[in-house]
Amino acid sequence: MALAAEAIGQPDGVEIEKARSHWSRAWGRFRANRLAFISLIFCGILVVTAIAAPWIAPYHFTETNPEARLAPLGTEGHLLGTDLLGRDIFSRLIYGLRTALFVAFGAELASLLVAIIIGLSAGYIGGRVDQGLMGITDVMYAFPSYLFAIVLVTVMGRSLWAVMLAIGISSWVTQARLVRAQVLSVKEREYVEAARSMGASGTTISLRYILPNAVGPLLVTTSFAIPAAISAEAGLALLGLGVQPPTPSWGSMISEGIGYILAAPHMLFLPATLFALTLLAFTWVGDGVRDAFDASGESR
User: What is the model's pTM?
Assistant: First the structure.
């Protein structure tokens, strides 16, 4: 950023200091939000648990115990009971968490890549490229994203990667529009013009000078998109279009538990409760991130 700063007569250190103060103010406001901060810690624990699933879970998710089918809570060796096949519920909840977070974060990464490419190209190049890409975006926006994910899973199969890509490919529209709007608001500013006049390429300008201005808004949308992806994965599983068994999914566990709500209610309430708490935690984090950036924007 030094090249552009020198060209407009402003020290690069000033820009860096402004960026630091902006992010530090946003972080301070987020940390002051107790509910959001506690939710962030809870989400961090979930992520660590998912990564360490093979070491935390007492059993593999495919391991069965025919002698302990539909075991209730507190059964020796199966703290949270077992399902119809005698599989440990606690272990399957942990591996189901791993499935949910893998799909959610992977889908959001795919969605961000598509959104950034389309949004940057449309906003910076403009003209017919902008019209064409935004036309595609409008068509995608008019098509229900969940229905599109169902179609993609049906075509690609029910593998973990297929579910992840289906959710990601069907959910990039809002972020692409956001990136384009940020590009349009920034690309005519002085430091961008200075970089352009000094011979910087379009790719360099887009990635180094324009895209960083969209990081804050993208962080807000991403924090809300992750629980949406978790919910979409569970919804596909409830429809029988989730990841292929025996890979555990909270949606499939809830679906199985509905049939045994009287004989073994823990099969339904445990995954449903964990699912709800996870969605709430990520949503509260999203609320905190949104409020932090909105407030920091007002204070400037």
Answer: 0.83
